[in-house]
Design a protein that fits this description.
8-stranded mixed barrel, 2 domains, Beta-Lactamase, alpha/beta, TIM Barrel, 35% helix, 16 strands, single chain
Length: 422
Amino acid sequence: MNSKKKRFPQAIVGAIGGTFIGYEAVAKQQPSMETQKTLFPYFQPIVGAASGTIIGYEALARQHAADGRVISAGALFCSPDIATEQLIAWDREVRRQALKQFSLSRCNGYLTINISAAWIDRLADFNSLPTLRMLDEFNIDRSRIIIEITESKGDLDKLVEIAAVYRRHGLKIAIDDFGAGFSQLERVMSIQPDIIKLDMQLFQSAAKGGVASDIVHLLSRLAKRTGCRIVCEGVETVEDFHFGLSCGAQYMQGYLFSPATADFKAPRHYQQQIASLRKTFLTNTLVKEAHKIQFIANIKGLIELLKEALQADFHLDALAVAPFEDSGVLRFYLCNNEGDQISSNFNFAEDRWLEDPAQFGFNWAWRPYFYQLLALESAKDSYRLVTSERYRDFNTDRLCKTLSLRLDHERILLIDIAAEWT
């Protein structure tokens, strides 16, 4: 639904649910019965990053323009002049066509059909759902159908209830536009979906780096911890695809492969293209990893110098000629075995060490990089270098990591380093 190109000024909705994404510059008019009859489904492929095959499709509503072009049906579904009951009736008719075509196709994957969260509020009887009746009519294996809940509106209690009904009947649940707002996080916690589709605008912004990239990686980790599969929508460029791989997304959907079309393609249609994309990703990643390895090797060499200098006293002047700053070392400090900081922060800048006592006496025992080191020691593990996750340093606004290692029986050495290469 969401992986349609934004460059076209037409309104884009999920067919089946009619979720609004954009606008089409068309004059308002009451659609005729002939327009109603032209509504039909198109299908956008969703590909698997690992297999390289088409693993499913999303059904989207389309109609013919006056000049014969196939366009989105969004102008109808977004019109304030059309009664909601009529929109729901059209939506169900397109859904029925989509399921019928799916049942007659040779597609062995799944089909995603969009259902508006706002329209679910109008359902009076959850024991007689139109979609389930259609599946029975066309004898479709329910395990191959995914209900994608669109829009941020709708009563959450009803969404949870209907999701449970669909699951009891063997269908899977997807949440669309994950990351578009807190309401989606609330839905994830309440519905516990099988599939999460990352918000297209957030994903495309994240592919360019910056804070959006950090957010998408965080959302991806959250999805993995809840057992969800990730679908990246709006994949339009090679860079988008590679970023999706770096986030751990199993599935991709977007114009890089295909817009929505009338027909189902052979499962291996994009396999060669995806294999080439994965190969390029591996080549590029290996270069980055080589830089990381060299970066870490340099850091370890400097740590050995620092350890030696700290064995007896803070003999740091002799270390000023070592390339600490160029190698990404920001500061170091010492803690006792209880996590109390027993030294100042020593920041390296402008070829010399600068002492900052502001955090003397702080306790860091609650930080993972500290207690993990002690846990390794209690397990009789030998000397280890424990590394924290990335974080943004408050003082320098740089992405950092903290390294912790045993200096002697009484002291633990902690070193903050720049995380650009790690």
